Amino acid sequence: MGQDGRGGTGSTGTGPPAAARLLARLAVLAAIGSVVVVVLAVGEGGLEVLLAGFLGLVVCAAGVWWFVAHRGAVRFLGALLAIAAPVGVVVLFVHDGLWLTALVLVLCWGVALACARSALRKARPRRVGRGVTAPRPRSPYLIMNPKSGGGKVGRFGLVERAQALGARVTLLDPDAPADVAELAREAVAEGADLLGVAGGDGTQALVAAVAAAHDLPFLVVSAGTRNHFAMDLGLDRSDPARCLDALTEGEELRIDLGDVAGRAFVNTVSFGVYADVVQRPEYRDDKAGTALTLMPDLLVGEGVRRLDARIDGTPLVSQQALLISNNPYISPDVVSGGGRRPSLHDGELGVLGIRVEGAAEAADLAVRGSQSTGLTVTTARRVEVTSSAGEGSGADEIPVAVDGEALRMTTPVVCTVRPGALRVLVPRDRPGVAAPAPRVNWRQLLDLAFGRPGRTPEQGGSKEGASEEGNPAAGTSGGQSG
Fold first, then answer.
1. For residue 364, which phi and psi values (nearest 5 degrees)?
2. In what order do the strands lie in the sheet with 375-380?
3. d(Cα 345, Cα 459) in Å, to the nearest integer?
4. Helix (H) and strand (E) counts for the chain?
5. Which of 131, 200, 117, 133 has its CA nearest to residue 344?
6. 48, 469 contact by CB (below 8 A)
7. What digits encode the pLDDT tens for the residues 162-213?
8. Beta-carbon contacts of residue 310 (< 8 Å; ≥ 6 apart)
9. Does the structure show a pLDDT above 60 at 389?
10. pLDDT in tens, 7-40
11. Per-residue DSSP letter, 56
């Protein structure tokens, strides 16, 4: 069973574990090895390997941009470049007899990065906490969406399982959309002492807001498609029936709840390109096709909308996309759905802004990653979003995607976070959250590898290094942090 923050070993204040120090030294050694490979192969094409690899990455990134942002012949050319660039690099290496040098270089650098991430992960002290033991609810009420997750409610027998545990269940009718928030409020008026949802994150957020307003525990059942919220709570996404164990053997966690213009969100609020795409009715049936059809107009078309924001008072202008999250994700992988939040109770929003205007900036993003000028990654307590499309003064309505749900809101749209607002009931026995891979910080790594025995990277003052690796929502009995 994975660590869930309720046990396991953590830092005792005596310095990083020996395994972390060893891995850090191996990472440094492998990085030095990659440099040695290049130096030794200078006369035999070592610099050619680096230059060809760099140019291949740049051309591939430019091709992807042309493919996404244009139509017709330019899109075809972009697709051709995106495929031909890496293939051409490989052919060059084989033709010039450089494939062995390239392979050794890639292996050395791959080992360096793998060891570095593992070392930094092991060196992080864990704030070992546990949820508060919760009494068994007397009158739990659950809302279940039979269509969510491709029919997981029926496939896992969730209605029967919940009713056997004493819960009252409302099964939504796919042909008659219901106001789930109103259903939850009616259940509270009738004496429900727990609210829960088996469905997508958008539905989870609506009912969670009602639970928070009445200070009732909330139960998450991972019956959605991706279940990002359940994942960051450490719940079992492969078997949603296990989430119902919280009704008999549960513990309570206090976590934050995001707020966008008075509407609660548990994961993310998106503005800009993604929000524009999900507004289209055809998006649900053909996500990729709809996105490719709309992207040219959204990225480089005439009168394209841009976003301005004030992040705790600091301006961020002319963004193509903004993503605001309930607590920050560990990396920008959230754009592709692969990000994870190491904590859900730090009392702050994650902010990700993207501005890529052409092939050169796309290449810069591919080469420099989070250091690119086209990417802004930060945190805040309050974010105010407006449109810079030039419609003139006054309010403007813009598309917004709240936990994947397509909405329109009047600017300025204000996002805030409500620390510790939500009581979440989870099973004591749960998989937990796999520790997300940290960003590689070579200064931290060198300090870990060769610094003082009693010093950890976190003691050097890095906020990132102090992230929790156990259950991200497992707080103390006070329920709030940050």
1. -60, -40
2. 375-380, 349-354, 321-326, 268-272, 397-402, 405-410
3. 22
4. 13, 17
5. 131
6. no
7. 999 999 999 999 888 899 999 999 999 999 999 999 999 999 999 999 999 9
8. 316, 383, 384
9. no
10. 333 444 456 688 888 999 999 999 998 888 878 7
11. H
| CA torsion through residues 291, 292, 293, 297, sign | positive
- CA-based radius of gyration for the chain: 25
Tell me, yes or no, if the pTM score tops 0.85. Answer: no
How many other C-beta atoms lie within 10 A of the C-beta of residue 340? 18
Q: Is 464 exposed, middle or buried (0-12, 13-18, 19+ CB in 10 A)?
A: middle
Q: What are the start-end ranges of the H helices in 214-358?
A: 228-232, 273-278, 287-300
Residue 10 tokens, joined: 């953590």
pLDDT tens sequence across 220-275:
999 988 888 999 999 999 999 999 999 999 999 999 999 999 999 999 999 998 88
Say which amino acid occupies 275: A
Least confident of 41-50, 115-124, 141-150, 241-250: 41-50
Crossing angle of helices 99-123 and 442-450, rounded to 10°: 70
**Token pair belonging to 48:** 């050619």
In the structure encoding, which two tokens stand for residue 239, read together? 């078997």
User: Nearest Cα to 324, choosing from 282, 274, 396?
Assistant: 274
In the chain the first and final C-alpha atoms are separated, in Å, by: 29
DSSP 220: E
